[in-house]
Specification:
It contains 3 helices and 5 strands. It is α+β, with helices and mostly antiparallel strands. The protein has a 5-stranded antiparallel β-sheet with strand order 1-2-3-4-5, covered by helices on one side. The model has no long low-confidence stretch (mean pLDDT 84).
Length: 120
């Protein structure tokens, strides 16, 4: 069994212009989030940078592949399954991106960084 956040109802569609694209049912939802902690979206604050609280009305919806994105409606936000499903998929992807960002090896060795700092 794979450990992905995708199933037949929901799928991560990728990232476009800094927005996460998520398919839930027949619609595609888009939201712009950074990798920093975002109140009202993330559960646990582990320190570091913090963004403004997430505005759920900033989510955009595409009804079919040939239509343009439109703002999400109150009716769509009031569905019991929407927010938890959307958060689960986006946070899974953000976790992967954070771990990839944090695991990048420095371009310079420790001695090179010390020599640079001492030389300034």
């Amino acid at each position: 069994m794979s450990k992905s956040a995708n199933n037949s109802f929901s799928a991560y569609m990728g990232k476009h212009d800094g927005s996460y694209l998520v398919r839930l049912g027949s619609k595609i939802y888009s939201a712009k989030l950074s990798l920093n902690f975002t109140p009202d979206f993330d559960n646990d604050f582990a320190g570091g940078a913090q963004e403004l609280p997430f505005n759920w009305y900033s989510v955009r919806v595409q009804d079919n592949p040939h239509s343009d994105f439109r703002p999400v409606t109150t009716e769509e936000l009031s569905r019991d399954w929407f927010k938890p499903a959307f958060k689960r998929i986006v946070n899974y992807q953000r976790t992967l991106e954070r771990s990839a960002r944090n695991s990048q090896i420095s371009r310079y060795s420790a001695n090179q960084r010390i020599a640079y700092k001492n030389g300034r």
